[in-house]
Amino acid sequence: MNAQSLVSPGGEGARSLRFAALLATYMQSANLPLPNSALRLIQGSLSMTDDQAGWIFTAYLAASAISMPIAQWLAARFGLKRVYQAALALFVLGLLLGTAATTSLEFVGARIVQGLASGVLAPLSMAIALETLPLDKRATFGAKWTAIVLFGIVSGPSIGGWIAEHFGWRPMFYLSVPLSAFIFLVVALLLTEKKAGKPPAFDFFGFGTFTLGLISLQMLLDRGERLDWFASLEIWLEAMASALGFYLFVVHVLTSNVHFLNKRLLKDRNFVLSTVIFFALGFVLLSTMALTSPMLDEILGYPPDTTGALTIPRGMGLVGAFLLMGRLPERFDRRFFVAAGIAIVVYANWLMLGYSPLMDEWPVAVAGAIQGVGLGILMPAVSKVAFSTLDPTLRPEGTGLFNLARVYGSTLGVAIVQLFFFNNTQAMHMALVSNLTPYRAAAHSLTSAPLQALEGLNEMITGQAAFIAVIDQFKILLVVMLVVSPLVLFLRKPVAAN
């Protein structure tokens, strides 16, 4: 970054600033899944359809994926302190817009505002925290920062569920307003800066074409089911825009010498393969949450606080395993732990295929805890492998791309499982209803049944179809991890970090 903050490592001021930066990191990550345990309440008050409920996740993620690559350039161009405070103000604006929303589109728009601010807050919070540390402690700080991000993701639904159950869903967003005010005040009092003497260079063409491709693809996946896919002109336009954006980006990368994705990164086999695995990890990390909480809340009828509480075992397994991996001696080959983490995640997803409408909370808690352990092992292990053979001069750019892979994986993962969920629900509903004919004894009396009884029967069939569709989506997550598992065989043995 060309614009550097004037923060002296050590002292009470530096510790307070680091605490504020880490608090912002936790806050922005916790707000991503915060509404997940209260979807039924949000849908009811905003007349939100099932497919629009999926936008609550994807809008935040896609917006973060847009703003994250440009965060460092903004800080270098306009000043870290100024950009950081603007992002905090934008984040609060998104929170307030969310609480004031009266329609589903207004709420999704508020989530987009939150996501744009979150994509800036995340990398700049880490930059501020790093500047408050002595040089000899910065190398090990990344693991702690990632643990806080994960803790926010896994604890958000339990916090949101408890607040929604006792006070309604809108107050869950007010919780971050005083936190944001505190962070803003600490930054205003303790952080000083100097602006860059020369405006930094940035590959706007590469960034713009990649963003065009990503957002058009996201819109295609989110809107396709509602608009009957390619029967709609909008879907055709989004498909062509996505293809054009990605085509121009690939051509730009292959033909240009200057772009925000360094081609030298693609020459390191460990980094490329590990980034693909990390993409798959992101695909599973949030998609599981996007499926499990609605299953418990909407299909099985669990209250929001119970739905949120059932995410705690997964979070404890994930964060606990992540922290233990940080204490692992360097002599252990991390490739073994990459393979072990993938195997544990696959086993946990296989357990999820055994979910039943008659089950209690324990199968969800056990499968979630096991998956959390697998993800907690896989994440630090694959990160270590990715950067162990990478040229140290490429590590800052590599870190940005590596983290973006997880964000992009989560964005597309949630969109894809939501898409197949609605398709499978409709298909299973038709299959179940086709067996309810007057010639079957169980349905013979339906011809004279009152309308209320028929509505109850249809609701029961819809619930059964939706539950089967959820299980089918867990199969997708299982297949994704199985597909990337052979990549472990092609990883080179990690070398000592330089």
TrEMBL record:
It is found in: Cell membrane. Pfam families: MFS_1. The keyword Transport applies. It comes from the Bacteria. InterPro entries: EmrB-like, MFS, MFS_dom, MFS_trans_sf, Sugar_transporter_CS. One of its GO terms (molecular function) is transmembrane transporter activity. GO terms for cellular component: plasma membrane. Keywords: Cell membrane, Membrane, Transmembrane, Transmembrane helix, Transport. It is a multi-pass membrane protein. Its main location: membrane. This is MFS transporter. It comes from Pseudomonas laurylsulfativorans.
